[in-house]
């Protein structure tokens, strides 16, 4: 049973007949009850579902990073994870149904106009992933020495992610990350982005490339 709020002309929450009332971020919605499917999904629907699954399977484990990386993208209309899905499904899912794959070089883990790290480099040796960036500050973008530097490593063979327990800062200019031994002996993909301490200014992520984890 639905509950009427703010009088007879107000919004309501819950089920009333064939409609459901709800609210998200202060916006009231009314939607019809879903209809029972009597026919199987069309090929177009299966393609959309497969593309969505391929991307969501990759992104869901890094939802905390996406909350920072996409936290300022259409924040009044969608969640950071949905914003990340929308952007990446359209550009990073490649191949033909049903054999979709991910183009890691096109995956974005953040989106924004804040300044990044200039010339950046990544390498791996003796179980350590090393990432370097330009630590000089920009008066135009008002970048700060204590800006957060988020680094993400993904090893597809094990389907596992690695990041730092605490983000490095822009002033560090470099960081060494110990790679778990069970992830060594394969290739990994690395991304980086920058954000101010409050997380209100975020850079577009940069794909640093594929590295041999040795």
What is the percent of helical residues? 10-25%
| Low-pLDDT segments | none
> Number of helical runs?
3
What is the CA-atom radius of gyration, in angstroms?
21 Å
Outline the structure in words:
By secondary structure, the chain is of the alpha+beta class. The protein has 3 domains: 7-32, no CATH class; 37-111, no CATH class; 114-214, Sandwich (Immunoglobulin-like), CATH 2.60.40. 17% of the residues lie in helices and 35% in strands. It contains 3 helices and 14 strands. The strands form 4 sheets. Strands 9, 10, 11, 13 and 14 form a 5-stranded antiparallel beta sheet that branches. β1 and β2 (12-16) form a beta hairpin. α1 (43-59) packs across α3. The chain is globular. The mean pLDDT is 90.
Any descriptors?
five-stranded antiparallel sheet, 17% helix, 214 residues, Immunoglobulin-like, 3 domains, globular, alpha+beta
Give the SSE map.
Elements: E1 3-4, E2 12-16, E3 19-24, E4 27-32, H1 43-59, H2 63-69, H3 80-92, E5 93-96, E6 99-102, E7 121-125, E8 128-132, E9 148-155, E10 160-163, E11 168-169, E12 174-178, E13 186-195, E14 206-213
Antiparallel strand pairs: 1-2, 2-3, 3-4, 5-6, 7-8, 8-12, 9-10, 9-11, 9-13, 13-14
Helix pairs in contact: 1-3
Brief overview, please?
With 214 residues, the protein is of the alpha+beta class. The protein has helices at residues 43-59, 63-69, 80-92, and strands at residues 3-4, 12-16, 19-24, 27-32, 93-96, 99-102, 121-125, 128-132, 148-155, 160-163, 168-169, 174-178, 186-195, 206-213.
